[in-house]
Amino acid sequence: MPTHLLVAEDDRNHAEILRRYLESAGYRTTITHDGRAALEQFRRRRPDLVVLDVMMPELDGLTVCSVLRRESDVPVLMLTARTSEDDLLTGLDRGADDYLTKPYRPRELLARIHALLRRAAPAPDRFGPFAIDVARRAFTVHGRAVDCTPGEFAILTALMRQPERVFTRANLMEHTNGYGRDSTERTIDTHISNLRRKIEPNPRRPRYLVTVYSAGYKLIDPGPP
Description:
- The protein is built from eight helices and eleven strands.
- It is of the alpha/beta class.
C-alpha cells in the first residue's frame, strides 16, 4: 500500500498543487484546510506523515502539532512563512520533526518528506529467509513479498518476534483476536495451513513453520536444504 500523507494547508489552490505533486511521486495524499479537520482526518486515517501549515483557521498548526505529539509519534513537517529563529524553535519545541519556510520548491518538500520517512521507518525484523516490517505490514520470504490476511500477519508477527519459541494455539489465539471472528483452535490451524502454502517450499513437509507434537507451532531456520 502506498505511503499515506496528510497535508493540512488552508490555501486551497496551493493544497491542490501539493496533492498532485505528491501523488505523482507515488504518495497517497489526504488534504485538509483547517486544523480541526486535520486532527479528525489523522485520527480516522492514521497517515504515515503529516505536513502542517502553521497558519490555519480553527486550530493553528502549532496547536495541532502539540495534540499529535500527545497521541502519536508520526513524523510532522511544519510549513511556515515565519522566518525568525524563535518561531522556528517554537515549532520544534511543540514536537515537529522538521520545518520548511515559504516559499519553497516542491522538490525540496519531497526531499524533506523522504528524509523523515527514512528516519521514522523501523528496520525490518529478520530471521533466516524471512523479513517482517510491522509498520508497513509487509512480509517477505527470500525477498519475495507474501500477501497475508490480517490474522495470518498477526501470527507471523508473533512468531518472528520470538523465533524458536513454541506457541500454543491459545497463545496464537490471543494475537489474532480482533481480526474478524473470535479465534478458535480450528481457526489457528487454518491460518497455519494457509501460511505454509505461502511460505514453505513444500507445504506437506514444512521446514520453517513446524508443528511441535502436543504443544503447538514454532518458526525455525533449518538452514540450506
